[in-house]
């Protein structure tokens, strides 16, 4: 594994604190469906589509991950870092928390 991939993987593992199973269960909730931006012509938010990709990456062995997986992992890390910096007063029931959970990160953990 290249040093860049190793650092991306480490940052991804630090940012994503939900398992594939937890992410998939979260996607079944109304709270998950209620947040996020949807691209024109799409029916699912960007975050929910990302969550499905994250769950797939979590199930893929390191050796089988490709450049597109690592690009998405880097995107996830950036999203989580940016949004953690915007923490609201009440994070428990906030759209902020729900949005982060769509990206595989539960800030209450």
Automatic annotation (TrEMBL):
Annotated protein name in UniProt: DUF3140 domain-containing protein
Taxonomic superkingdom: Bacteria
